[in-house]
Amino acid sequence: VTVATAREAEALAPVCRDILIAYPLLGQSKLNRVIQLDPFPGRLTIAVDSLVALGEVAEAARSAGRDVGVLIELDVGMKRTGVPTIEEAVALAAEASNKTGVRYDGVMFYPGHIRSHIDAQEEAVRDVRAYLVSVREALDGAGLAPRVVSGGATPTVWRSHEMGVTEVRAGTIVFNDRTTVLTGACDWHDCAYSVLATVISTAVSGQAVIDAGSKALSKEELRAAGGGYGVVHDRRDIIVKALSEEHGVLDLSATAWRPAIGERVRIIPNHVCVSMNLHETVWAMLGDEVVGCWPVAARGRAVQRPRSV
Amino acid sequence: VTVATAREAEALAPVCRDILIAYPLLGQSKLNRVIQLDPFPGRLTIAVDSLVALGEVAEAARSAGRDVGVLIELDVGMKRTGVPTIEEAVALAAEASNKTGVRYDGVMFYPGHIRSHIDAQEEAVRDVRAYLVSVREALDGAGLAPRVVSGGATPTVWRSHEMGVTEVRAGTIVFNDRTTVLTGACDWHDCAYSVLATVISTAVSGQAVIDAGSKALSKEELRAAGGGYGVVHDRRDIIVKALSEEHGVLDLSATAWRPAIGERVRIIPNHVCVSMNLHETVWAMLGDEVVGCWPVAARGRAVQRPRSV
């Protein structure tokens, strides 16, 4: 499993064999926590993109008397994190392979800059592959051949193998959402997550207001045709056109359907990850039957204690 | 106190004398919950903008053998909820005053359409006042003079009295945020909430990446000069220019400051309400001293149990 926070690692350690923290964790207390919970020694890997982050992992690993795997994060075009050049990738990999406490395992990347439709990704995917081939050649030449090349994202999930990876990370594909459908990476019937809302007002004509606002759906506007913040599951001509904290406004201008106050609708949000993160529990359904209530275990725990001075 | 959900009412009932649920609560189970917890009988008020919502409150109140106050919600220009005409306001008030179980108390409104700077609100506030005067005259003429006129919002907080209200509701002013500063309703030193983040990567030049993403700050883009999702507390020329779920990207193009990896920064988000809602706890500070850890009690509980069929 791939996670981004110590808390997520803690929540998933009891049920997962391998944990990749695809994020440069900093701070000895946080690193000690994740190293101690390593369920099977040797199965914890942490991604780093700087000497500082690498040094922090090594220090925590040494004081715990453990080895922790590291991957060097590459920037393949998103310009968020990751070392931006081949030279820096080789230099950081060399440092990792020489440091006690860490085990150099390879590289990772997140091609989050590719957000186009699956039919229009050819060139961008080819560029990523070409860059990765160059990185591998340089690492091989330095005696640092990567055992792991971990990469991928949901929009490009069906082309991950073309990039030359040894493991695929595509988080949104577990549940899917409106954005994933619109990139072509899944179909509407693949969307396994929806927010059940109640129509609470039809006072203003041409719209209906539901009790799912930005605190239920998350306010990530679709930057593409259609716009808005989500769609009604079985009436996809109806967009959530506006969101306040506790109000969602359904645009009824493209439909003759007029819901009654009290009627329930299922909303598929633009982005499932940030919507699920807003809820303490989710109801698991099999067909029309409620079969479980799952806690969303790792949410809401990112806050840091300030240091008193 | 003013709340929008049953869960918020439950969290605050033990410490509040009066509770206004400024939201049309639907469903007998939810209404029964809030009526039962009414800390001081007669102190619970619910806003309604439809016969359906009014009927639901009356039914729950009657079966509990209690009286529940109602306010008629008016739409004064936001076009979200609230009855849109004076005639409908009078008609719904008349229904409320005739129904057993409910006590007609007056009207409420939320002028959320006024988002301009405090120096440019004159005309919009005058329009709201003029409309409220007309509503009052019509209600007075029908023998339905409102005891309560509840209204207000944070951008217009310093002009609430000009609208002719008997109580002011201005939620964001409790903590303030970047948006409130930019409307002129508060100053930077009035911002009592910030998100403490750590710089985790400086690999890409011209920026620094922090570990506060959309799951810590919330992704509400500023639709005004400056843009972005928040600012650094003591370096306000530095904007959070991009947000992923766990990454925030600080734009360093307007500053010579280059943070070290591991350095901590305080971010003032665009919208405090949705940011605080993402955290399980907040640390309370007095000056530089940590003086408490507060649970964010009412968050994450909006999810409805689906009915099995």
Query: For this entry, what is the oligomeric state of its chains?
Result: homodimer
Q: Greatest contact pair?
A: A-B, 77 and 75 residues
List the uncertain runs of chain A. none
Strand content of chain A: 15-25%
**Integer-rounded radius of gyration of chain A:** 22 Å
Helical content band of chain A: 25-40%
Give the overall silhouette of chain A.
Answer: globular
Give, in spatial order, the strands making up the sheet with the most strands of chain A.
1-2-3-4-5-6-7
End-to-end CA span of chain A: 38 Å
Structural class of chain A, please?
A: alpha/beta
Number of strands of chain A: 15
Order of helices and strands of chain A: EHEHEHEHEHEHEHEEEEEEHEE
Question: Short summary of the structure?
Answer:
The structure is a homodimer of 309-residue chains. Chain A is α/β, with parallel strands linked by helices and 309 residues long.
Structure report:
Two copies of one chain form a homodimer. With 309 residues, the first copy, chain A, is of the alpha/beta class. Helix content of chain A is 26%, strand content 25%. Chain A is built from eight helices and 15 strands. Chain A has helices at residues 6-12, 28-37, 51-64, 86-98, 122-141, 160-163, 178-183, 272-276; strands at residues 2-3, 19-21, 44-48, 68-74, 102-109, 148-151, 167-168, 195-201, 207-210, 230-232, 235-243, 248-251, 264-269, 281-286, 289-295. The first copy, chain A, has a seven-stranded parallel beta sheet. A six-stranded antiparallel beta barrel of chain A has the order 8-9-12-11-10-13. In chain A, strands 14-15 form a two-stranded antiparallel sheet. In chain A, helix 2 packs across helix 3. The first copy, chain A, is globular, with a radius of gyration of 22 Å.
